[in-house]
Amino acid sequence: MEDLKRGIPIPTIKRFPSYLRLLRQYLEEGKEMVSATTLAEELGLKPIQVRKDISCTGIEGKPKVGFIISYLIEAIVHTLGWDNATDAVLIGAGHLGSALARYEGFESYGLKIVAAFDIDKDKCGTKLGEVPVFPLESLKGYIKENHVNIGVVAVPAIQAQGIAELLVECGIVAIWNFAPKDLKLPENVVVQRTDLATSFAVLSAKVKRKIANDELSGEVDEW
Amino acid sequence: MEDLKRGIPIPTIKRFPSYLRLLRQYLEEGKEMVSATTLAEELGLKPIQVRKDISCTGIEGKPKVGFIISYLIEAIVHTLGWDNATDAVLIGAGHLGSALARYEGFESYGLKIVAAFDIDKDKCGTKLGEVPVFPLESLKGYIKENHVNIGVVAVPAIQAQGIAELLVECGIVAIWNFAPKDLKLPENVVVQRTDLATSFAVLSAKVKRKIANDELSGEVDEW
DNA sequence: TAGATTGTTAATCGATTAACAATC
DNA sequence: TAGATTGTTAATCGATTAACAATC
After folding, report:
1. What ranges do the domains of chain B cover?
2. Which of residues 87-146 of A touch B (CB under 8 A)?
3. Is it true that domain B2-80 has CATH number 1.10.10.10?
4. CA angle in degrees (0–180, nearest 5) for B186-B187-B193
5. Where does the protein principally reside (chains A, B) (predicted)?
6. pLDDT confidence tier of residue B213, bands split at 50, 70 and 90
7. In this predicted model, what pLDDT tens digit does every residue of A51-103 receive, in sequence order?
């Protein structure tokens, strides 16, 4: 019960997909069991951390051998709620939207982009891979009829806030935002960013730190 | 000195791009000063946190009024190392690679994708927006000649590890990985993922938590 | 001046890590 | 059995938040 309220730590949630990918690979290779030690080694984590993470799924292992791979996979998928496929609409059929619509990996997370919408009338009627593109005007009707509850935003920054508000108005409860803009929405709407700037900022900071440390330790490239 | 070794906290680094976007917008609107309170309000953060973050840039404010916007922008850009443009090569000219090559926002982070590389010979000789596509064989030569030190990986998961190793072999020191695969590389190589699965996992977890909480508090959609 | 905002020091909170007994 | 690995409890670490004096 306490678990429901606070839930699994976000850092743990973020590591789950990595475990999942590796476990699925092991399963394909015909393996049946794996130890936390091995997972840690392969993913550059500490064994204790892997054990703590796994304990969040409720799965128990056997001392000396480890965990049953198929059980772990099932438990992680269930913990993330990826066992029930969720339909999503995509807003924005530009280059990024197009790449997202065609991305095949979503299937394994239980996410299905069922339709795309764009203001550009020329794009309407076309398809992004398997995903049909409709005019933005038909968004509300589509969402209501098909009970979609996730919206993927891939429009230019200037339009993002407006589109997000439109989605909320249409009854969408969760928004996955790829536009470089921080959205201001009611608290009960779940928003998750995938922000290239944020990711690159971390890369930049790490590079800067590395350079600083290299210089401190007197490392040189050539001499 | 201590600062160099440990550096600015990663969570702070992650918030910098959001500050930056907002500050630049304010500057365009002709504003000159802004308080931490206003920034916090607009970004859904707490004022104390914004002040702590700003203190990492070394910028000092004036009680009652706040901070000089242009100084803040300059300081954040400098802190991130975005004041010196960095050249990067892109590996993989598929849909995602194409979207990345055409993305205009990189300019404001000091990142410039100067060339793309692909194994598919049909793609070579074409352009992704302004970015020319070359055969993978010419990667090593290009990197050496042009002193590129960032590699952006946008290839299928199965090829990611191999491509990353190739990049390291070519002398690349930082890799921005968009492939859904955890890379195993020497410690001195800086790796940053932009993993859709991770981002979607967080969204999924938040949705699950929200549903659980809504049920706990007895909220209903319709009755 | 009065009051809002800054900057700093201390308290709290949450995640990671360490230590170690339990177990196969 | 011996030794590797699990699971739990406690210690550490780092970031967030609170409290409050300084300041314009």
Report:
1. 2-80, 86-198
2. 94-96, 98-99, 102-103, 105-106, 109-111
3. yes
4. 90
5. cytoplasm
6. confident
7. 999 999 999 999 999 999 999 999 999 999 999 999 999 999 999 999 999 99
